Amino acid sequence: MYPFIFNNESFMFDIIGDIHGHADELIALLGELGYSQRDGIYGHSERKVIFLGDFVDRGPKIREALEIVRGMIETDAALTVMGNHELNAMAFHMPHPDRPGEYVRPHTPKNEKQHGQTLIQLSDSQLSDALTWFRTLPMWLELDGLRAVHACWDDAEIGQIANQLQKSGGLTDEVLAAACLPDGALFASIEVVLKGKEMQLPQGYSFQDKDGHERTKTRTRWFLAAAGHTFGSYAMTDELDCDIPLSDDVRRASRPYGETEKPVFLGHYWLKQATPKRLARNVACVDYSVAKGGFLCAYRWDGEQELCDENFVYVR
């Protein structure tokens, strides 16, 4: 799962967002992008896919989605990064190191519901095989000319994770526990990279997330400088109406993504716009809520350092 630097060779990339078991939409999108099947594996003569994780949970064809994705990765037709749902799945099935009978990710009704379709659709052997494969997935990709990560590119947090993975020889049980338990040494870094940065909302403010849960914290537009923003404009959601200027602690914690940095591609954020658009000149999210009535989305990257809205490709 490391090294994290790859040689692009002569290929350009199609970056595909969160699939969540929607295999039919994935097949349609691959067709729209010009990929075809050979010996049951999708590929392209001049391009490769980068998947941004979150293959499991929620959708109707999780097994089929995993088969397509793994087939492409194992034949070098695609690269991938890990999503937070792959991390959550590993933690859900890993016994807690200090509490017999409990798990690293608690089996609460909320967590069981989120993971439920994966439990229903995969046999025990298929699930075990998938969990073993998830441990091999990188958490980010650093390529010639672009970067890919599920939720947030932060050099400091990525460095913390990389050091621990290299020291431990991979995603061992100890590292997984340190990444997923709130008192673990890697918990804060993993939360940022795979789930995004959050800020506490002012007292009295909240919003409902995609699953109808009331939230008093929200994910941020971490790639932007915080100066001049309100809580509403800096939140990575359109559900929050709050014109209060950002607090000093939020502004001090801001580490915006530099305008001269490589383009970075994200999933994770369940965007709802009818037409995909870049988030900044060098930042694009390709998660448009296929598992919540949206569409599966890709960005067709041809080496440009300033991203173009016209390069998004999607199927409804």
What gross morphology would you assign? globular
Q: What's the CATH architecture? A: 4-Layer Sandwich
Q: What share of residues is helical? A: 25-40%
Q: What is the straight-line distance between the termini?
A: 33 Å
The proportion of residues in beta strands is: 15-25%
Q: Mean pLDDT, nearest integer?
A: 94
Which radius of gyration do the C-alpha atoms yield? Answer: 19 Å
Predict the CATH topology.
Purple Acid Phosphatase, chain A, domain 2
What count of helical segments does DSSP give? 10
Q: Total strand count, please? A: 16
Q: Please identify which CATH superfamily we are dealing with.
A: Metallo-dependent phosphatases
Order of helices and strands: EHEEEHEHHHEEHHHEEEEHHEEEEE
Query: The biggest beta sheet, please?
Result: 6 strands, mixed
> Which CATH C-level class is it?
Alpha Beta
Query: Which stretches of 5+ consecutive residues score pLDDT under 50?
Result: 1-6
Explain what you see.
This protein has a single domain, classed as Metallo-dependent phosphatases (Purple Acid Phosphatase, chain A, domain 2, 4-Layer Sandwich), CATH 3.60.21. The longest helix is centred in the middle third of the chain and has 14 residues. 31% of the residues lie in helices and 18% in strands. This is Bis(5'-nucleosyl)-tetraphosphatase PrpE [asymmetrical].
